[in-house]
From TrEMBL:
InterPro entries in alphabetical order: Solute-binding_3/MltF_N
Pfam family membership, one: SBP_bac_3
Alphabetical list of SUPFAM superfamilies matching this protein: Periplasmic binding protein-like II
Protein name: Solute-binding protein family 3/N-terminal domain-containing protein
UniProt superkingdom: Bacteria
Domain Solute-binding protein family 3/N-terminal: 28-242
Species assigned in the record: Aeromonas diversa CDC 2478-85
Length: 243
C-alpha cells in the first residue's frame, strides 16, 4: 500500500509554491490601464501593482509588455505567470486564479457611422462580419455566442482591426469601449466616424494567475490589492489616469 501511495504521489503533479517575488508579470497595450512608455510598463494597473508589492513587502519586480495573444498563451501554459489587465468572463473564470478588481471594461461593437448600423439583439449577430484582437475577450465573447469563426477576421492590435473597418473589409469591430477610444487617438482618426452598434457585455478587469500558482500566494495578492483600493493613495491615482 505504501509503495502504491508513493507511486501515486510521484505521478500526480503538485501545485507550484510561489510568493509574489517569484511570479512572472506580463501585461499588454491597453491604455490607460497598462501600456509601454519609454520602454517601461506604465498605466493604472501597473501603479496599483507597485502598491500591492509595497503593501506585501515585495521588492519591485520586472514587468514585461507583450502582445495580448502571446501573453494569454503564456498565461495558459507557463507556471507562475500573472497577466493583466484580464477580463474575468464566465468562460475564463475556471481556467485561471484571480485577484480583482483593477477596473471594468464595456465590450462593444463598433460600426462606421455613415452606415447607421444598429443591432437590436444577439440574434442579428450572425448577419455580419467582424474584426477583433486575437484571443481578446471581445473575440471570445463573439465565439461564445455561437458566431461562425469564419466571420471573424483576427487582428494583432485594435488599431489594425479599426483599419479593417475603415477600409470596408468588415462590418463591425468588437472591442473594449475605452481601448477603442485610445486606438482612435493612435490612428489620429475622428471618433465621429464610428458608431456604437451594440453592447456585448461589461466585464471586470483583474490580475489573472496561472493555475499552478499556490492559493496562498493568490490570497496574499488579493488581500494586498484590497488594502490598496481602500487606501488614501488610490483615488488620486485613479484620477491621474481617469481625469
Amino acid at each position: 500500500m505504501k509503495t502504491l501511495l508513493a507511486i501515486w504521489l510521484l505521478l500526480c503533479p503538485l501545485p507550484l509554491l510561489a510568493d509574489l517575488s517569484q511570479l512572472e508579470y506580463l501585461t499588454e497595450h491597453y491604455p490607460p490601464y497598462n501600456y509601454q512608455e519609454e520602454g517601461k510598463a506604465a498605466g493604472l494597473a501597473v501603479e496599483i501593482l507597485k502598491l500591492v508589492w509595497q503593501q506585501s513587502g515585495t521588492p519591485e519586480q520586472p514587468i514585461r509588455v507583450v502582445p495580448w495573444a502571446r501573453g494569454y498563451y503564456l498565461l495558459t501554459q507557463k507556471p507562475n505567470v500573472v497577466l493583466f489587465s484580464t477580463a474575468r468572463t464566465a468562460v475564463r473564470d475556471p481556467l485561471f486564479k484571480w485577484a480583482c478588481p483593477i477596473g471594468y471594461s464595456e465590450i462593444v461593437l463598433l460600426a462606421l457611422a455613415k452606415r447607421n448600423l444598429t443591432l437590436t439583439d444577439e440574434s442579428t449577430l450572425h448577419a455580419y462580419t467582424y474584426s477583433a484582437v486575437r484571443f481578446d475577450v471581445s473575440e471570445q465573447l463573439l465565439l461564445n455566442r455561437g458566431l461562425d469563426d469564419t466571420r471573424i477576421m483576427p487582428a494583432n492590435r485594435l488599431s489594425q482591426a479599426l483599419r479593417m473597418l475603415l477600409s470596408g473589409r468588415v462590418d463591425l469591430v468588437a472591442a473594449g469601449a475605452l481601448a477603442a477610444q485610445q486606438a482612435m487617438q493612435e490612428l489620429k482618426v475622428d471618433p465621429t466616424l464610428f458608431h456604437r452598434a451594440y453592447t456585448l457585455s461589461a466585464e471586470t478587469l483583474c490580475y489573472a494567475f496561472n493555475q499552478s500558482v499556490n492559493d496562498e500566494t493568490v490570497n496574499q495578492f488579493q488581500q494586498a490589492l484590497t488594502k490598496v483600493l481602500a487606501s488614501e493613495q488610490y483615488q488620486p491615482l485613479y484620477k491621474r489616469f481617469f481625469p
